């Protein structure tokens, strides 16, 4: 909100100064409101949004220097230890923790929406069997808009709520079926009575011949992965969802856009890239040579670094504990891949290259190891991130749509292309 501070822009060519108000949030740095600047005939230039707040939001707060992450004011450490994913979904969507009654009604609402329309299953069959599950998810989630015409009025709060519930409910099912189609397994159905995470494991791994017996420790670890990935403020995919939604596009199309953005290796694709990197390195003896390559910028150390966290990623600390629990449960502490990951982590934390650049392990460095230990195939790591982040995306989308001041997102540019020139007929070129 506005306070009395102002930033004054002065020009060195005699133009009038421009005062710009400084806005204060409840937490975090102050923000200079540069909207008046557009009237001067100039624009600000900030590729990658290094110095730009793209919106006002009340959902998630990150302090990158202190390594803090809050959902609706609650520290991630407390939510990871005391809450569960569905409660976190309610919190992100509604702003408050639910009462027992609200929780029950919410859970029932999600359960009621977890089946997929039978016609949607034909869509899966249009993909090649070897399609990456993220490719299938982009297509199938976008296609949901062709199935739910009854809830596409973005100006109707009830429609927005139903679409949000449908997305949270159906994403695990869609991700699981993308995997099963790839494996040549028959499609599976959700089983109400299981928790959200247990149900996902059941849909992934049950077969018509054999019940999947859910290991509670593994299901809890997965639930924690969902919680840690549920939201992360204005990251690339969330900003993509907001930008797509700012044109009035329907929520299913917007979430499909978010999934597409998340797929990249600098974002949600990093967990998959970590495991591929560990495979590529092979064993601890090869770590020094690999690190030389990182310093020569031949490749990056995947699972390290973050645009906002410059001290530590609080999600990584929680994920490391979960990693320990899961490896203990499965007796995998001597697993060579885990040993290799720990050797990489140790060197990176002590090496001046990483210290100077404030590069620390991020959540994806450990989540890949946990998922792999649970038996989740590498190609499903990013789909799992996508299903967990869906609640964050849809919460941001709903917050934006409900804001009467919403405007279509339309960045400007610094044009450095050709001057105006006349068309040259082909024979004269
Ligand atoms: N390995 C080696 N060097 C790195 C890495 C890395 N993972 N990340 C950054 N650097 C170097 C980079 O080369 C640059 O060096 P110099 O100053 O010599 O040019 C310096 O650190 C600053 O990097 P940057 O690219 O300006 O940082 P950024 O804020 O634009 O990028 C990032 C953030 C996450 C894209 C990047 O750190 C990265 O690509 N990390 C690996 C991918 C990864 O793990 N992503 C998951 C992020 S957490 C999950 C999520 O939120 O999606």
From TrEMBL:
PROSITE patterns recorded: CITRATE_SYNTHASE (PS00480)
Q: Which family does it belong to?
A: Belongs to the citrate synthase family.
Instruction: Work out whether the entry's keyword set contains Transferase.
Output: yes
What GO MF annotations does this protein's record show? Answer: citrate synthase activity
Matching NCBIfam families: cit_synth_I, PRK05614.1
User: Where are its TM segments located?
Assistant: 365-388
Q: Which reaction does it catalyse?
A: oxaloacetate + acetyl-CoA + H2O = citrate + CoA + H(+)
**UniProt entry keywords in alphabetical sequence:** Acyltransferase, Membrane, Transferase, Transmembrane, Transmembrane helix, Tricarboxylic acid cycle
Look up the record and name the pathway of this protein. Carbohydrate metabolism; tricarboxylic acid cycle; isocitrate from oxaloacetate: step 1/2
- Protein name, entry field: Citrate synthase
Q: Name one Pfam family in it.
A: Citrate_synt
Q: Which organism is it from?
A: Vogesella aquatica
């Amino acid at each position: 909100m506005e306070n009395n501070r102002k930033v004054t822009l002065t020009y060195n060519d005699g133009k009038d100064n421009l005062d710009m108000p400084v806005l204060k949030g409840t937490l975090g740095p102050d923000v200079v409101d540069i909207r008046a600047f557009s009237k001067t005939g100039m624009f600000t230039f900030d590729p990658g949004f290094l110095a730009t707040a793209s919106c006002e939001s009340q959902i998630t707060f990150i302090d990158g220097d202190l390594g803090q992450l809050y959902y609706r004011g609650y520290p991630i450490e407390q939510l990871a230890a005391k809450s569960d994913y569905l409660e976190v979904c309610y919190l992100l969507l509604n702003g408050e923790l639910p009462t027992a009654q609200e929780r029950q009604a919410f859970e029932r609402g999600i359960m009621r929406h977890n089946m997929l329309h039978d016609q949607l299953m034909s869509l899966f069959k249009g993909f090649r069997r070897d399609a990456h599950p993220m490719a299938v998810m982009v297509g199938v989630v976008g296609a949901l808009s062709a199935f739910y015409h009854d809830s596409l009025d973005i100006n109707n709060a009830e429609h927005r709520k139903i679409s949000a519930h449908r997305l949270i409910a159906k994403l695990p099912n869609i991700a699981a079926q993308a995997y099963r189609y790839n494996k040549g397994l028959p499609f599976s159905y959700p089983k109400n009575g299981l928790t959200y995470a247990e149900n996902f494991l059941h849909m992934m791994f049950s077969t018509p011949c054999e019940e999947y017996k859910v290991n509670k420790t593994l299901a809890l670890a997965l639930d924690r992965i969902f919680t840690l990935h549920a939201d992360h403020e204005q990251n690339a995919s969330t900003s993509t969802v907001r930008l797509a939604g700012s044109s009035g596009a329907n929520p299913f199309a917007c979430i499909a856009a978010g999934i597409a953005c998340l797929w990249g290796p600098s974002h949600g694709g990093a967990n998959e890239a970590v495991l591929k990197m560990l495979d590529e390195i092979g064993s601890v003896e090869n770590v020094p040579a690999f690190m030389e390559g990182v310093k020569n910028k031949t490749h990056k150390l995947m699972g390290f670094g973050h645009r906002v966290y410059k001290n530590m990623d609080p999600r990584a600390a929680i994920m490391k504990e979960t990693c320990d629990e899961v490896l203990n449960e499965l007796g995998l502490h001597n697993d060579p891949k885990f040993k290799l990951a720990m050797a990489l982590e140790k060197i990176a934390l002590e090496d001046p290259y990483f210290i100077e650049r404030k590069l620390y392990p991020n959540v994806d460095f450990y989540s890949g190891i946990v998922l792999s230990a649970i038996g989740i195939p590498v190609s499903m790591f990013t789909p799992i991130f996508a299903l967990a982040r869906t609640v964050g995306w849809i919460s941001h989308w709903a917050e934006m749509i409900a804001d009467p001041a919403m405007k279509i997102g339309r960045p400007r540019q610094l044009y450095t292309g050709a001057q105006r020139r006349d068309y040259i007929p082909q024979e004269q070129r």
